[in-house]
């Protein structure tokens, strides 16, 4: 696959790394938008992913642009990034010793064409002991992460089961992105 003109509309170092791991040439442009945070998780991530990509498309209309957005969902409640330490504690407490879902919406914009899809992964946390939670929050890792955790970081030791795409939980479902790029390249 050859995509020399791809722009990743994200400031996430994790998304950048996942795209690099796919061997696709790209450049990064940050897309600051007012993100939707409430409502149906699929609608939230799809709207935000499209909004990020469209923001960059305004500046670069002839380029291929990839936007993505990830949220964590527990009992229908959407968890974005925690506002502060107490918000991170609230989120982690809700995730402790149970299953939750992670949704990532992806939008691939090309001149005259929009491709959109999402992925969902189920994740199970073990029981998080209070001292573990405090130490994890103090580490700073929960901030700037949907649901207040990074599966590829220290939180990995708190997760005992996962059903679905691991890269989706990090923030960019690689197999889904590959499929969208293939569709774009082959005008499907």
Describe the protein's topology.
Blueprint: E1 6-8, H1 13-21, E2 26-28, H2 41-59, E3 64-74, E4 77-79, H3 85-95, E5 99-110, E6 113-125, H4 130-138, E7 159-163, H5 166-170, H6 174-185
Parallel strand pairs: 1-2, 1-3
Antiparallel strand pairs: 3-4, 3-5, 5-6, 6-7
Helix pairs in contact: 3-4
Outline the structure in words.
- By secondary structure, the protein is α/β, with parallel strands linked by helices.
- The chain has a single domain (6-185), classed as Maf protein (Alpha-Beta Complex).
- It contains six helices and seven strands.
- Strands 1, 2, 3, 4, 5, 6 and 7 form a seven-stranded mixed sheet that branches.
- The longest helix has 19 residues, at 41-59.
- The two termini are 15 Å apart.
- The model has no long low-confidence stretch (mean pLDDT 93).
Please trace the helix and strand order, writing H or E for each element. EHEHEEHEEHEHH
Main sheet, how many strands, which sense, barrel? 7 strands, mixed
What's the number of helices? 6
Q: Helical percent range?
A: 25-40%
Task: Compute the average pLDDT.
Answer: 93
Distance between the termini: 15 Å
Net shape: elongated
Whole-number count of domains? 1
Uncertain segments are none
CATH topology grouping: Maf protein
Q: Based on DSSP secondary structure assignment, what is the total number of beta strands?
A: 7
CATH architecture label: Alpha-Beta Complex
């Amino acid at each position: 696959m050859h995509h020399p003109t791809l722009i990743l509309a994200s400031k996430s170092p994790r998304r950048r790394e996942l795209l690099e791991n796919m061997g696709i040439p790209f450049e990064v442009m940050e897309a600051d938008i007012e993100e939707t945070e409430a409502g149906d998780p699929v609608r939230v991530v799809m709207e935000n992913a499209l909004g990020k990509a469209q923001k960059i498309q305004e500046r670069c209309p002839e380029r291929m642009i990839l936007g993505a957005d990830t949220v964590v969902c527990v009992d229908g409640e959407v968890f974005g990034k925690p506002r502060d330490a107490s918000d991170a504690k609230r989120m982690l407490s809700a995730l402790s010793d149970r299953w939750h879902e992670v949704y990532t919406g992806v939008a691939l914009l090309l001149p005259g064409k929009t491709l959109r899809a999402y992925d969902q992964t189920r994740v199970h946390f073990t029981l998080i002991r209070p001292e573990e939670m405090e130490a994890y929050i103090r580490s700073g890792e929960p901030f700037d992460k949907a649901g207040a955790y990074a599966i590829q970081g220290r939180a990995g030791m708190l997760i005992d089961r996962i059903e679905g795409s691991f890269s989706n939980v990090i923030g960019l479902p690689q197999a889904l992105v590959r499929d969208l790029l293939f569709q774009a390249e082959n005008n499907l």
